[in-house]
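[agent] plan:
  1. take the single chain provided in the ticket
  2. run structure prediction with default settings
  3. attach structure tokens to the ticket
  4. add a short note for the reviewer (M.T.)
[agent] executing step 1
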Amino acid sequence: MAPLAFITGASSGIGQALAARYAQAGWRLALVARRGAEMAEWARAQGLPPERWRVYAADVAEIDSIVAAGQACLAELGVPDVVIANAGISLGVDTSLREDLGVLARILAVNNVGLAATFQPFIAPMRQRGSGRLVGIASVAGIRGLPGHAAYCASKAGVIGYCESLRGELRGTGVRVVTIAPGYIDTPLTRQNRYGMPFLMRAEDFAASAMRVIEAGRSYRVIPWQMGVVAKILRALPDPVFDRLLVGRARKQRHTD
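[agent] step 2 finished; step 3 output follows
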């Protein structure tokens, strides 16, 4: 039987590109998105045989919703070989404003709690089987904080920290935890940005690179590699130098923009 990939946020952007890449490689797909009907329409448009895919409509921000999707996948399709927690949202915030605290809470609910809830149903079955890949999609934005990006940067730093902790917990079980930190990828999300995006990468090219990293079971990788170099430089910069570099940089749009 063909291997199985469980992918959240599969209805657009990086998630859809990853779904297409795994489909091309002959994998079975468990596709998770809030808009289940649109997801199913996409799968049919790709010409995928019905037995090769299943759609689970779920809201990653709701723990019971995404856990139920994972449990349904286990019951209907079995234990996946790869679980990719890709669903995420990004909005600028100004936490001096009371209304933006709700936006912060929503981002953390999706990007952090939702990621852990995506993995939860599969951890014990994968450990029992002695194999599997749990893949967290982080971001280079999780490496250092950017003005106006507090919620997104905090959430992606959280993804990196959570996946590192989980990796240690599963060491020796045969289950690999893979953290992938995309740089700027050309998706509907990034097209709204109001600032320069160096080393912008096509989603299709990102998916091809990410699949190789996942198959190899790498613990952490920045894609594209050029942004990995930038990330190392950013980590090494003293705070005063880093702060001066950001003076005048455009901020990410808030929910009211």
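[agent] step 4 note for reviewer: The first strand starts at residue 4 and ends at 8.
[agent] ticket updated
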